[in-house]
Amino acid sequence: MSTVQDFQEEDIRLVDITDSIGVYFKYLLQKFYIVIIGVGGITYGMYYYAKTAEPEYNAFTSFNTVDPKGIAASGLISLASSLGFGASGTTVDLLSGLYSSRLVFYNSMIEEVEVDGKPEKLGNEMMRVYGLDLGFKQIEGKENFGFTSTDISLFSRDEDSIANILYGIFTDAIAEVEYEVTAGLIYSNVTTPDYQLSKNLAKTIIANVSKYYEDEQISTASISYTTLNRKIDSLKAEIDWREKKIAQDMDRSIFNVKREGVFDQEFMRQEVSNLKMMYAEAIATKESAKSSMKPQASPVRIVDHPDFSTTPKYKSTLFFGLIGLAIGIVVVIIPLMLRKAILLGKEENALKEKLKTV
């Protein structure tokens, strides 16, 4: 019996909900002109904005590296640590970190690039595009402020401050770096409102990544070369001392040499043999390090270069249209439904008061 009653109460609740929905729907139909004008107007406004908005420009770069000699790993890990980002030691992590490192970015800001056929520091071009030069134009004595330093260690206080702001813009809103495992390539996108800036920024950054990677290889090879030289000298001295000792023992009269001296000579000859093997290996490694100290072809292989892959990126009219529709629903339909709910509540309260007086 109670089960039948529960079903009846549930049916009543569902009917009430259906009736309520019907009431709100009829109300919206009565206000159709407001719904159409409001929701349709906001949707079209967002669509029109996306349709007429100026495009951004995306400079795409794909790159990787092939390091056949494998001599730079420890040096690159040291470089990564000095740049202030963690590294697991893999080439992918190191190159990705270098691409977004502060050191590479700061050095890129003082590079000369071509803007409208004229040479200009990249930092000054970026300041102009993002309007950061306007603040200086209002300060007496700094109307023509720009990057002038030839080395980041010589940055003025203003240059360092602006470089820090630009770096924040670069990492937060401009640059994206990811590794595509299947292709074995690192993909980077640099997106700005200006075609020349996107192209200049992307190609300067990748050029400095390549430069620092190569410089660190040479630096590591140089350190290895110096260390190996010391090791070779030490091994040579140990070999010479033992060979001299063996020669001296052989010159003695056999009748004056104790029996245990024979064993000492055999042991020393074995040591000399081992030391000579180590010496030969050190000489071969030294020659490899010596050849690596000479500048080679760039170790960073660029597959897609920004000079040929900078394209306009338009805003999606569909995406902004849907955003406009959602805003319209929130701004127009929901307030109308709330207004209807308030009216219904007032009518219900009035009915209750009337029933009390009867």
Terminal CA distance reads 35 Å
What is the averaged pLDDT score? 77
**What is the ordering of alpha helices and beta strands?**
HHEHHHEEHHHEEHHEEH
Q: Mind describing the biggest β-sheet? A: 5 strands, antiparallel
Number of strands: 7
Poorly predicted segments: 1-12, 68-89
Nearest-angstrom radius of gyration?
Answer: 38 Å
List the helices and strands and how they pair.
Elements: H1 2-30, H2 32-52, E1 56-65, H3 73-83, H4 91-99, H5 102-109, E2 112-115, E3 118-121, H6 122-129, H7 133-137, H8 157-174, E4 175-180, E5 185-192, H9 195-251, H10 259-292, E6 300-304, E7 310-313, H11 317-357
Antiparallel strand pairs: 1-5, 1-6, 1-7, 2-3, 4-5
Helix pairs in contact: 2-11, 3-4, 3-9, 5-9, 9-10
Can you put this structure into words, describing what you see?
The chain has 358 residues and is of the alpha+beta class. The chain has two domains: 2-52 and 317-357, no CATH class; 56-313. Helices cover 67% and strands 11% of the residues. It is built from eleven helices and seven strands. The chain has helices at 2-30, 32-52, 73-83, 91-99, 102-109, 122-129, 133-137, 157-174, 195-251, 259-292, 317-357; strands at 56-65, 112-115, 118-121, 175-180, 185-192, 300-304, 310-313. The strands form two sheets. Strands 1, 4, 5, 6 and 7 form a five-stranded antiparallel β-sheet that branches. Helix 2 (32-52) runs antiparallel to helix 11 (317-357), helix 3 crosses helix 9 (195-251) and helix 5 (102-109) crosses helix 9. Residues 1-12 and 68-89 have low confidence and may be disordered.
